[in-house]
């Protein structure tokens, strides 16, 4: 169980398989455990690196709210690649992890061979829409602080697993600093992406159909795949369809 020490934070990650590197980032309130099927499916052909974001899973986040931000997450991703001696890899993630993958490309395009964006969106240009999203994030933070991990019973997201986490306190801070959004830089960067990009969404993930359509239009040459019989956690709901779609994309990069 490797850990990366960064500024007093022990970041948990796993490095499995061999071949071209793929870094996968999980969604809010999930952990690297959500990628169990993908680690098995891709480890024979690719080096699959997964990790727990600050406040999630086996990564214990800092005590200060200031230690939870988009910039911190992007820096953690870069540090994990450094620890694995990976100069350039396929960067992908689901939901919050997909957004952070876009933010990583925005900060380090030279380190991204390709992007994989699963059940995610690029944020908001409209300040009112962003404020509404942030109200949602704050509500989750307050619920986690009040009810602890038992809050998962009422938060209603498919990839949430209370048993994957040690404490709700870090998740609450992550909601305020990482799930909340503060500008439209990621959204504005979409037309400048010049690496192969896979956009994937579960057929029943109604909230993310429009955002994935938008990204498919704005990112040059992007491929979009809809996974049947799947909701927001498409990789967990229907790995039998999800894994071949991802494998086809990854195989195309090697050709």
Secondary structure blueprint with pairings:
Layout: E1 3-6, E2 9-16, E3 21-25, H1 36-42, E4 47-51, H2 70-83, E5 89-94, H3 96-107, E6 112-118, H4 127-147, H5 152-155, H6 169-179, H7 185-189, E7 197-202, H8 209-218, E8 223-227, H9 234-237, H10 239-254
Parallel strand pairs: 3-4, 3-5, 5-6, 6-7, 7-8
Antiparallel strand pairs: 1-2, 2-4
Largest sheet: 8 strands, mixed
Distance linking N and C termini: 33 Å
Fold-level CATH name = Rossmann fold
Question: Strand tally, please?
Answer: 8
Individual helix count: 10
Mean pLDDT: 93
Strand order of the largest sheet: 1-2-4-3-5-6-7-8
The overall number of domains is: 1
Q: What would the principal axes of the Cα set say about the shape?
A: globular
- Let me know the CATH homologous superfamily: Alpha/Beta hydrolase fold, catalytic domain
Oligomer: single chain
* The CATH class: Alpha Beta
Pick out its properties.
8 strands, Rossmann fold, 255 residues, alpha/beta
Provide a short characterization of the protein structure.
The chain is α/β, with parallel strands linked by helices and 255 residues long.
General description of the model:
The mean pLDDT is about 95. This protein has ten helices and eight strands. It is globular and about 45 Å long. The two termini are about 35 Å apart. It has an eight-stranded mixed sheet with strand order 1-2-4-3-5-6-7-8, sandwiched between helices. Helix 1 links the parallel strand 3 (about 20-25) and strand 4 (about 45-50). The longest helix is centred in the middle third of the chain and has 21 residues, at about 125-145. It is an alpha/beta fold. Helix 2 (about 70-85) crosses helix 3 (about 95-105). Helices cover about 40% and strands about 20% of the residues. The protein has a single domain (about 5-120, about 185-255), classed as 3-Layer(aba) Sandwich (Rossmann fold), CATH 3.40.50.1820.
């Amino acid at each position: 169980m490797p850990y990366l020490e960064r500024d007093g934070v022990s970041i948990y990650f796993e490095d499995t398989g061999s071949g071209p590197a793929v870094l996968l980032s999980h969604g809010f309130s999930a952990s690297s455990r959500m990628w169990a099927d993908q680690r098995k499916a891709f480890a024979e052909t690719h080096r699959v690196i997964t990790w727990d974001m600050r406040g999630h899973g086996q990564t214990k986040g800092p005590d200060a709210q200031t230690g939870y931000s988009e910039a911190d997450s992007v820096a953690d991703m870069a540090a994990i690649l450094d620890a694995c001696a990976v100069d350039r890899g396929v960067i992908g993630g689901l939901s919050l992890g997909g957004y952070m993958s876009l933010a990583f490309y925005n900060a380090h395009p030279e380190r991204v061979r390709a992007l994989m964006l699963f059940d995610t969106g690029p944020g908001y240009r409209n300040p009112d829409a962003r404020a509404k999203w942030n109200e949602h994030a704050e509500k989750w933070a307050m619920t986690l602080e009040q009810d602890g991990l038992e809050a998962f019973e009422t938060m209603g997201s498919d990839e949430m697993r209370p048993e994957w986490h040690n404490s709700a306190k870090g998740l609450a801070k992550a909601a305020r600093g990482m799930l909340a959004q503060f500008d439209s830089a990621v959204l504005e960067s979409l037309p400048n992406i010049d690496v192969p990009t896979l956009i994937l969404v579960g057929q029943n993930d109604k909230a993310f159909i429009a955002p994935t359509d938008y990204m498919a239009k704005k990112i040059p040459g992007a491929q979009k795949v809809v996974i049947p019989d799947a909701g927001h956690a498409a990789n967990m709901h229907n790995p039998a369809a999800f894994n071949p779609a991802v494998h086809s994309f990854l195989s195309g990069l090697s050709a």
